[in-house]
Amino acid sequence: MAIDNLSLLLSKYFGLSGRVVIPGIGLLNRIHDSATHQFVDKKYHPPTYKIIFEDKTSLVPQAQLTYLSRLTGSTLLEIQGHLEELGRSIYAALERDRKIEWMGMGLFQMDVDGMVSFEPRNASVQYLKEISYTHVIRKNAEHAIIVGVSEKTNHEMEDYLEDLKNQPSWQTWQKLALIILLISLAIVLIRFTMGNFDPLGPTYENLDPKFPAATYLTL
User: Fold this and answer.
1) With b meaning 16 or more CB within 10 Å and e meaning fewer, what string describes 119-137?
2) Which of 2, 43, 99, 103 is the most exposed place for a label (fewest CB within 10 A)?
3) Dihedral sign computed on CA atoms, order 85, 91, 93, 99
4) How many structural domains does the chain have?
5) Which residues on adjacent β-strands are paired with residue 147?
6) Same domain, yes or no, for 29 and 122?
7) Which of 89, 97, 106 is nearest to 30 (CA)?
8) Whether the predicted pLDDT of 2 surpasses 50
């Protein structure tokens, strides 16, 4: 089995599982960020994906070996050997060229200390487009409302408030509120028209000071 073919199969497996191990190189892991809903912008933003690289040597998962074995017809032990050979060839290319591109997804790089890193071609990959929408309020739409410790629908609360407004007690409170408002306005009007009340001045009357005569002898 050719090394190039194995790289292609690994890339395909990574696209399906989001996780692939190359012995001697490290682990590539795809991180998924959930879709977001921006109510103000009226848009649904699709999920994005980031590729995280760990340069620690990891054991090849059984699922990865099984997948490659099923596609190639090789045994698990043979697949393990081919993966180790692929890792050695990538490491040798990094020692020689300091960087190598892997299947269009990013670059493996090696620094002067021999540490391997991976730079994704796109730091954040977005496979779908954002969706714009329009807020719609439907008159007959029904939704739940928490009232105290119980749950009711908006239609039930509308019927309840409508029945409450038709009760005599509700109309009595409206009349009392109107009477209190009229009395308050009358009191304020009377206060403005009585005495020397000045809206822009002090609310007390001017005092006329009186100075009593001295009760002691002045020399």
Assistant:
1) ebeeeeeeeeeeeeeeeee
2) 2
3) positive
4) 2
5) 150
6) yes
7) 106
8) no
